[in-house]
Amino acid sequence: MTATYAEPAEPASQIDLGDQGGAGELETLTVTVQVRRYLPEFQEDAYWDTWQLEMYPTDRVLDALHKIKWEHDGTLSFRRSCAHGVCGSDAMRINGRNRLACKTLLKDLDHTKPITVEPIKGLPCEKDLIVDMEPFFQSYREIMPFLVSNDNQEPTRERIQSAAERERFDDTTKCILCAACTSSCPIFWTDGQYFGPAAIVNAHRFIFDSRDDAGDMRLEILNDKEGVWRCRTTFNCTEACPRGIQVTKAIAEVKQAILARSF
Ligand code: SF4
Ligand code: FES
């Protein structure tokens, strides 16, 4: 996901409401947004930039960032694509907590104080709110995030699975690879080698899939000193996940599966 800017849908604060037939005027609010800037081609150190914006309470933090970029400072850089919580490209630290900018409404934040926006932690910052996601995706690739079948024959029909078998890994199918969990994990901050919660969640998704035949291989990969045993059950990942996935529970289930196999 490399897109940093394209002409997207207008935020609510830029839509000309015209005659909406009795909806009345929407009240705006003044918000102060502080963004952690990093422009390595001009300045070695990161610094804070501040803007005061007139926004609607129903605008999202992403709308505020768009307003800054389009109306105040075109050099501000951040990733986003879908703007609706699906693509996972706009995870950032908002008021010190990992969230998706497109899912965070201004009315849900305390706008009597500045709203702070920073890049997620633990991954190298490339520019402003854009981090290098390669270490994150490297861990993801290592757990083999695809269905593996020992049946070498080309299937002639779909692989049948009961509703209960599908339910077993339903929660971990919801991951959008936003990295909010992994970049909220203190073990990942201090040890960049740790697989991190997102990779384990995606391993879980296949380990507990009755159609998959590589569960033992994935468990062996995660039964590593940089694997599941680094998790200290701090629950930061579960709190950070914008999809509501029980991340810590999934990690615990993978640990139990490894112990049950006794490698
Ligand atoms: S588990 Fe949740 S927080 Fe982690 S990458 Fe997936 S969607 Fe994002
Ligand atoms: S822009 Fe796609 S999840 Fe926020």
TrEMBL record:
- Which residues are in the 4Fe-4S ferredoxin-type domain? 165-186
> Where does the 2Fe-2S ferredoxin-type domain lie?
29-123
> What EC numbers are recorded for this enzyme?
1.3.5.1
> Bound how, and how many: what does the cofactor note say?
Binds 1 [3Fe-4S] cluster.
What's any GO biological process attached to this entry?
Answer: tricarboxylic acid cycle
Q: In which pathway does it act?
A: Carbohydrate metabolism; tricarboxylic acid cycle
Q: Indicate the secretion signal residues.
A: none
Region feature Disordered, mapped onto this chain: 1-21
The enzyme's main class, written as a single word, is: oxidoreductase
> What's its catalytic activity?
a menaquinone + succinate = a menaquinol + fumarate
| Entry's Gene Ontology molecular function annotations | 2 iron, 2 sulfur cluster binding; 3 iron, 4 sulfur cluster binding; 4 iron, 4 sulfur cluster binding; electron transfer activity; metal ion binding; succinate dehydrogenase (quinone) activity
> Keyword set for this entry?
2Fe-2S, 3Fe-4S, 4Fe-4S, Iron, Iron-sulfur, Metal-binding, Oxidoreductase, Tricarboxylic acid cycle
* Names of required cofactors: [3Fe-4S] cluster; [4Fe-4S] cluster; [2Fe-2S] cluster
The record's similarity note reads: Belongs to the succinate dehydrogenase/fumarate reductase iron-sulfur protein family.
- This protein is called what? Fumarate reductase iron-sulfur subunit
Q: Organism, per UniProt?
A: Auritidibacter ignavus
